[in-house]
Design brief:
Layout: E1 3-4, E2 7-10, H1 14-25, E3 30-34, H2 50-56, E4 57-61, E5 68-72, H3 78-81, H4 111-125, E6 128-129, H5 137-148, E7 154-155, E8 157-158, H6 185-191, E9 195-198, E10 201-208, E11 211-217, E12 223-228, E13 230-233, H7 239-246, E14 260-262, E15 268-273, E16 289-294, H8 298-301, E17 303-308, E18 321-322, H9 332-341, E19 346-353, E20 359-363, E21 369-372, H10 377-396, E22 401-404, E23 444-446, H11 461-478
Length: 479
């Protein structure tokens, strides 16, 4: 027998847990489907073994295997394993126009309209600016690099309490120092009657007589259906478009823009090899995000940069080599090179900036997502600008040199996929209205990174969370 409820939410990360609480507060019957398991601090381990990590993450590869993206699969989604940065996007983010002249953010979505929702999230998540005592040595070295060339940086904002600086933020915090959604939104929603069902994967969304039916598979591999008035989709920027595209046979008016405009939030990873004796630090100690961030390049280049702590396992996926030199082949020579520089002569940086969405998510023959993320001319030009005009200034101004992070180039995928079912003012270019409602299907809302229409200029967690609060507010008032 088909189950009935008011609201079905697919996904339990920022985009799912936040609407779950707000709709439960409004008296709605809410069921949340989460394909991952529930993990608590006692389930996490301080190790980077790939078999362990694959229980926590889903990894997606570009169709040419040159770029990969990872998302979290567990109750609480990315809030459990992310590096913790909760930063408000700069105001200029919301004025960005792509290469065609299209203003990607809706006119009514600005920093000013989002600020009250950011504040609500920050209060719930206990977000605060890190103290100077919380800056790990890699963050201090990053600050030294910038200071030496006349640039500035400051401490970011995080939801951490009594952090031990152990460096396993993205493997699960065994100390409970990071205030993820399992400490606030999820238990608050459960207390009001919202039901979170783990190991339940949504397969299709069907439109029947003005209502929606979500077909899903349980952990026992049984098929079930739930009928609802409102369906909130927050499965992540890769799985959400794939779910909608799988459902096209039931959602025949689905916009052809679903799955398009996919991008990486302008992420560009680069390493700097420091001169011998430059500073005393160990690259793998401290928080994954090493607290310090610079906005000093924002006005000129529209990028921010932060550093982090890199565990040894990360170098299994990177091909470090000085720029404009022959690649060092994996093997004994590469091991000797890393051994020489790894502990205290290597610092990794992530630049985040404004880019066009030129990738695409397809649903493959089995319905699973397929990523097409080409190194387009504009993306290549952006990466070269970041490296040649910014990274080299920092490195060479300190007697160091920039290193490639992939074969003859720079790693530009990983953790911040966005915009694959974006909201916008133009129906021809955006599948969702400015309130995340899927055009042609009133009552279906997209609230995760899929609906974020453009780069955020910083780590996107707070942008996603604040936008989810805003959309949830709209649903409560209109449904």
């Amino acid at each position: 027998m088909r189950e009935q409820t008011d609201v079905v939410i697919i996904g339990s990360g920022f985009g799912g847990a936040i609407p779950a609480l707000r709709l439960a507060e409004a008296g709605k019957r809410v069921i949340v489907l989460e394909r991952g398991k529930k993990y608590t601090e006692k389930d996490f381990e301080q190790r980077w073994d790939i078999k362990y990590l694959m229980n926590l993450y889903a990894v997606y590869y570009n169709d040419d295997l040159n770029v990969f993206f990872r998302t979290c699969r567990m109750l609480g989604g990315g809030s459990v394993l992310y590096s913790g940065a909760m930063l408000r996007p700069p105001s200029e983010v919301f004025e960005y126009r792509d290469s065609s002249g299209y203003k990607v953010w809706p006119d009514e979505v600005t920093r000013e309209t989002l600020d009250p929702y950011f504040e609500r999230v920050e209060r719930m998540m206990e977000v605060r600016q890190a103290t100077w005592d919380e800056v790990p040595r890699s963050g201090a070295v990053f600050a030294m690099l910038l200071d030496n060339i006349g640039r500035t940086c400051d401490r970011g904002r995080f939801p951490y309490v009594n952090c031990r600086q152990c460096g396993f933020c993205e493997a699960g915090c065994i100390f409970g120092a990071k205030r993820h959604l399992g400490y606030n939104y999820i238990p608050a929603a459960q207390a009001l009657g919202a039901e979170f069902r783990t190991e339940c994967e949504a397969l299709y969304i069907k439109h029947e007589l003005g209502r929606y039916v979500v077909e899903y598979r349980t952990r026992e591999n049984q098929l079930r259906e739930i009928e609802c008035d409102v369906c909130v989709v927050a499965a992540n920027a890769i799985e959400t478009p794939a779910l909608l595209l799988r459902s096209r046979q039931y959602l025949r008016n689905l916009s052809d823009q679903v799955g398009r405009n996919f991008h990486n939030n302008g992420d560009v990873a680069f390493f700097i090899e420091l001169p011998e004796g430059f500073a005393d630090f160990t690259v793998y100690k401290g928080r994954t995000n090493a607290v310090m961030i610079t906005y000093d390049y924002w006005d000129e280049h529209r990028i921010t940069i932060h550093t982090g702590c890199q565990p040894p396992v990360i170098f299994a996926a990177l091909e470090l080599c000085p720029v404009n030199e022959d690649m060092i082949p994996f093997g004994l020579q590469y091991k000797h090179y890393l051994k020489e520089i790894y502990l205290n002569r290597l610092i990794g940086c992530l630049a985040i900036g404004l880019v066009d969405g030129e990738g695409r998510i397809y649903a493959g023959p089995n319905g699973r997502p397929v990523i097409y993320f080409p190194l387009t001319e504009s993306l290549h030009a952006y990466i070269q600008r970041v490296v040649n005009e910014v990274a080299r200034e920092i490195a060479e101004g300190n007697g160091g040199r920039v290193l490639y992070t992939m074969k003859k180039g720079f790693e530009h995928g990983d953790a911040h996929p966005l915009a694959s079912v974006r909201m916008g003012d133009d129906p021809a270019k955006a599948p969702c209205t400015p309130y995340g409602e899927l055009r042609g299907y009133p009552g279906i809302f997209i609230t995760d990174g899929s609906s974020i229409p453009g780069s955020t200029g910083v780590n996107p967690a707070l942008a996603i969370a604040g936008n989810a609060e805003r959309i949830a507010d709209y649903i409560v008032k209109n449904y």
